[in-house]
Write a structure and sequence with these properties.
This protein is mostly helical and 686 residues long. Helices cover 64% and strands 0% of the residues. It has helices spanning 2-9, 13-27, 31-37, 39-50, 64-84, 98-101, 104-118, 135-150, 158-168, 174-194, 199-215, 222-238, 244-247, 260-270, 275-286, 291-307, 309-317, 321-336, 347-361, 379-382, 388-404, 408-425, 438-446, 449-452, 456-462, 492-506, 514-520, 528-545, 548-566, 595-624, 629-638, 645-656, 660-669, 673-685. The termini are far apart.
């Protein structure tokens, strides 16, 4: 704090020398070491002081003198750091200007500091001295200064800036929300200058975040409404060439005089859309990564279905192939997003709105539907190389969460997961793994096979994490007593999370995917989709490479889940145990009348067994294929899960451990009558 004060206030050479001598005498520690150890906190403190509420920001715009003083201060810190650090140590930056100095891990750490200030008031504020009553206002001011100072680096931190500014719109303080709107203005301008192509990625989430304020036009305080109107005009009118392809999918905006110019541009872009094209545009928005965009699209879809009920009925009964395809696309989109995988405050509302849309569509003859919702992955194909699973995980799951979430905890946990995956799997050779040289490590990661398997878009999103320094603040959980599924009070997501964390401890420490699973352990609770993606791989690694006890624990969990299904009688007669406080004993599935828990858990078990059965068939064909011994040996070595007779035997015994008659009863009890036939027939044959 003392360092920040003298840098912000300013001092001549003599005063600064006196300060350095005083600090060294007081702490018995060299000033160079002090500065190096506290550099991130020092930068946060400097920004925090510069964004103080004692200076008026007219119309929430950063005063020129504040910005000029910050540039001079940061440039001075950069020069001093370079002079004081010994030549043998890497300099934080090769540039002396503020933009060059504020890069890489400095921006990441400052964003983390702002994130801490915007979280719930119970979170410990480690980076501030005396927080003002309007700490949210000061935090957003700090963020806005950061955006202005980041220069071309802003494109590398798009997810962080977007999440924090969106979070700023959710706080209670009116001034903080207005500052957030102005922050979006700085952000959009900076991104348009640094990388205009990224505007297409962020425009829809921004518009959806602003929509509630556009609708609240009768608010007693019009400052917020006016600020939002100015931002919308900037986005849609000034940058319409950059976002032209996204204007067609914009949600319906209120028809108010303030938005006339904006609506004219949007309408011109959409053109004269008939019902079919309008529905296609909505379906496209339902496929967006951001849950806020999909939530808004569902609202527009519900309105469309109510107003166009006769047209929808004609579409359902039409014999035209194009109409059938359109209806199938609609149903596929609704079924796919009926469960909000990403944790958010509106997850329940999201699912309910999706079900309301399905209700508006009404009953459809199944013979007219050709839905094909395929399995998400084929275990053997995704394990064909050592980099295939890390690359697939980052591309299909983690990068999407990083780009779309506004949950700050989910953002941090996902960033940590990607950082660790790049650290452990981004090395071109084993000799560089032990290197402590950050620059060498970054270069290795970008030259590795993993980096080459990622698309340029994904590389652009995760590149800042090559230099980030996130670390875990909690320890990995110990092994849990199994079966876990019977513990009282578990939700479906909680059961999956506890089971997966237990399984991670069962993965051999020398297995190449141990680091992958551990890296994701913290973010799993925020994204159900990632849990379901990793679970079959995790179980397969434990079964094929784990100890006998680890394999036994998997069998016990599967059998306990199926046993729970066979014990269900009448789930609607629920509340025998409601209000009681039983011990950690295993309870029947009718506890608390939670039919959804039973149905979802059984669907997961069925999916796992199907995937393992398919893996077994493909692996047997692979092993029995008449290849040369050399070719077969090379191919098997490239597989992360060994395609050997031992692996086949272990997976076969895992499938055999679950009685077919129990599977039949469980499937029947959860309404999957067609699925119940196959295990029942196999039981009769046995």
């Amino acid at each position: 704090h003392a360092m920040a004060e003298i840098f912000v206030v300013g001092a001549d050479n003599e005063q600064f020398e006196a300060f350095v001598n005083y600090m060294e005498k007081l702490t018995s520690w060299g000033f160079n070491s002090q500065l190096d150890a506290s550099l991130h906190n020092l930068l946060m403190q400097v920004l925090w002081k510069a964004s103080g509420l004692d200076v008026e920001w007219k119309n929430s715009i950063i005063p020129d003198d504040v910005l000029t003083r910050m540039k001079e201060t940061l440039s001075a810190i950069a020069v001093i750091v370079q002079k004081l650090q010994p030549p043998s140590e890497p300099s934080p930056s090769s540039d002396s200007d503020a933009v060059g100095f504020l890069q890489s891990e400095h921006i990441s750490m400052i964003l983390k500091g702002v994130s801490d200030h915007l979280k719930d008031s119970g979170v410990r504020q480690a980076l501030a001295t005396s927080l003002s009553p309007n700490k949210e206002v000061q935090a957003i001011r700090c963020l806005n200064i950061m955006i202005e100072l980041s220069g071309h680096h802003v494109k590398e931190f798009t997810p962080g800036f977007l999440a924090l500014l969106t979070k700023g719109l959710e706080v209670e303080d009116e001034q903080a929300r207005i500052h957030s709107v102005q922050g979006f203005t700085y952000f959009v301008d900076a991104l348009a200058s640094a990388d205009p192509s990224q505007l297409k990625r962020i425009v829809e989430p921004i518009v959806v975040a602003l929509l509630p304020f556009l609708e609240a036009s009768e608010s007693p305080n019009m400052n917020m409404h006016d600020a939002v109107i100015r931002l919308m005009e900037r986005l849609v009118i000034k940058y319409q060439d950059q976002i032209q392809t996204k204007l067609r999918g914009f949600p319906l905006l209120p028809s108010t005089p303030d938005l006339n110019k904006v609506n004219e541009v949007i309408q011109k872009s959409k053109g004269k859309m008939d019902e079919s094209n309008h529905l296609r545009a909505i379906i496209e928005s339902l496929g967006h990564d951001a849950i806020s965009v999909k939530y808004s699209a569902l609202g527009e879809l519900k309105t469309f279905l109510v107003l166009q009920q006769e047209w929808i009925n004609r579409l359902i009964n039409s014999g035209e192939e194009s109409d059938k395809t359109l209806m199938n696309d609609l149903l596929h989109a609704l079924f796919k997003c009926s469960k909000a995988d990403l944790r958010s405050k509106r997850s329940l509302d999201f699912s309910l709105r999706c079900l309301e849309c399905l209700g508006e569509v009404g009953a459809i003859d199944p013979r007219k539907c050709t839905l094909s919702i395929a399995m998400e992955q084929t275990l053997l194909m995704a394990m064909k190389s050592k980099m295939s699973l890390p690359a697939s995980l980052i591309t299909s799951k983690l990068s999407k969460v990083l780009s779309s979430t506004t949950d700050l905890d989910a953002l941090d946990s996902t960033a940590y997961a990607i950082q660790q995956i790049l650290k452990y799997y981004g090395q071109p050779n084993k000799t560089s793994k032990g290197s402590d040289d950050t620059q060498e490590s970054n270069r290795n990661a970008t030259q590795s096979g993993l980096w080459d398997e990622l698309s340029e878009d994904v590389q652009g999103v995760i590149r800042p994490l090559l230099k980030s320094k996130y670390h875990l603040t909690t320890k990995m959980p110990e092994k849990l007593p199994v079966p876990i599924i019977g513990l009282f009070g578990l939700t479906y997501e909680r059961w999956l999370l506890l089971w997966m964390r237990h399984l991670i401890t069962c993965v051999p420490k020398d297995h190449e995917f141990r680091h992958l699973f551990e890296a994701c352990s913290g973010m799993l609770k925020y994204d159900l989709s990632t849990m379901l993606f990793l679970l079959p791989y995790l179980i397969l690694v434990v079964v094929t490479c784990g100890t006998t006890d680890a394999v036994r624990s998997v069998k016990e969990e599967l059998k306990a889940a199926v046993r729970l299904g066979t014990d269900v009688t009448d789930v609607s007669q629920d509340v025998e145990l409601r209000g009681k406080s039983p011990s950690r004993s295993h309870l029947p599935a009718k506890r608390e009348g939670d039919l959804s828990f039973f149905t979802l858990s059984m669907q997961t078990i069925f999916s796992l067994l199907d995937q393992f059965s398919n893996w077994l068939i493909l692996t047997k064909q692979f092993v029995n294929k008449k290849n040369s011994v050399t070719e077969l040996s090379k191919t098997m070595q490239s597989l992360s899960i060994p395609a050997t007779t031992k692996s086949i035997d272990r997976v076969s015994k895992l499938l055999e451990s679950v009685p077919q008659i129990s599977l039949a009863h469980a499937a029947y009890n959860c309404g999957a009558h067609a699925r119940a036939l196959k295990p029942y027939e196999m039981h009769l044959r046995d």
